[in-house]
Design brief:
CATH superfamily of the largest domain: TPP-binding domain
EC number: 2.3.1.286
Bound molecules: ligand BJW
Number of strands: 8
Low-confidence stretches: none
Structural class: alpha/beta
Protein name: NAD-dependent protein deacylase
GO molecular function: histone deacetylase activity, NAD-dependent; NAD+ binding; protein-malonyllysine demalonylase activity; protein-succinyllysine desuccinylase activity; zinc ion binding
Order of helices and strands: EHHHHHEHEEEHEHEEH
Number of helices: 9
Cofactor: Zn(2+)
Distance between the termini: 15 Å
Helix content: 25-40%
Pfam family, one: SIR2
């Protein structure tokens, strides 16, 4: 059985990583446009670098939870061909053991060089303008996808979504495209579609089934 699981910030919430929207959200104190666009970075790179440096440090102190582990188990189950497509820039899926994984909005643990295009692994801060290990220029930014930029590996994702037998959306508000369109795409191609979310998204729903609850409860109970 071919399965695609799309994950969002909600899957990492119980690990202690803030979600973006809603009460207590990561962006409650920041306007999205202040930190998550290339224009904001051009205007005030230091604020944006600090924002991501803070998140990179925070993610290093947290661990994958039962939902990440359940998806890693699902990948290893006989007869299952699973692709996890995450919008998250943390590395909790891979730390739980998931191997078939796409980070469509990039990764905190990589930087991207605006001079040479290199994408070096990165664990430290970027605010102090360290040199790129590939070309030596001080032009590194976080390797994440901001509004107006093209998400990663879209061809691979769309191929998997169109071919899957089941599509599950876990812990995402479904407001950011193109990810927000994948459930409807999967359904149009004949897949069974599910949403697993603490607070299910509003109608009209492209989902055949909705399981409401925290990811650490609903994901293991779906997988096992
Ligand atoms: C729990 C839980 C628990 C909580 N258990 N659940 C008009 C129409 C269509 C598109 C556009 C449009 N105008 C502009 C666009 C394009 C734009 C877009 O979508 N804008 C919308 C806002 C309208 N998109 C883009 O620009 C994208 N690029 C693009 O479109 O390129 C062109 C293109 C053309 C053709 C084809 C394909 C592409 C790029 C989008 C980049 C998004 N980047 C960010 C930042 C990444 C770096 C970073 O992390 O800082 O990605 S924005 C932010 O939102 C981040 C997230 O990945 C993304 C989604 O958020 P997510 O994960 O859903 O989090 P929340 O907080 O919103 O929701 C949390 C959910 O968890 C909630 O549902 C809770 O209930 C739940 N939850 N606790 C289970 N314990």
């Amino acid at each position: 059985m071919r399965i695609v699981v799309l994950t969002g910030a909600g899957i990492s919430e119980e690990s202690g990583v803030a979600t973006f929207r809603g009460a207590g959200g990561l962006w409650e104190g920041h306007r999205v446009e202040d930190v998550a666009t290339p224009e904001a970075f051009d205007l005030d790179p230091e604020t944006v670098q600090r924002f991501y440096d803070t998140r990179r440090r925070a993610v290093a102190t947290v661990s994958p939870n039962a939902a990440h582990h359940a998806l890693a188990r699902l990948e290893r189950a006989p007869g299952i061909d699973l692709l996890v497509v995450t919008q998250n820039i943390d590395d909790l899926h891979e730390r739980a053991g998931t191997r078939q994984l796409v980070h469509m909005h990039g990764e905190l643990r990589r930087a991207r060089c605006l001079a040479c295009g290199g994408q070096p692994e990165w664990t430290g801060d970027l605010v102090d303008r360290p040199p790129c290990p590939v070309c030596g220029q001080r032009m590194l930014r976080p390797d994440v996808v901001w509004f107006g930029e093209m998400p990663y590996e879209l061809d691979r994702i769309e191929e998997a979504v169109e071919a899957c037998d089941m599509f599950a959306s876990v812990g995402t508000s479904g407001v950011v495209y193109p990810a927000a369109g994948y459930a409807a795409m999967a359904k149009a191609f004949g897949a069974r579609t599910m949403e697993l979310n603490l607070v299910p998204t509003d109608a009209p729903l492209p989902f055949d089934e909705v399981r409401e609850g925290p990811a650490t409860v609903v994901v293991p109970s779906w997988v096992d």
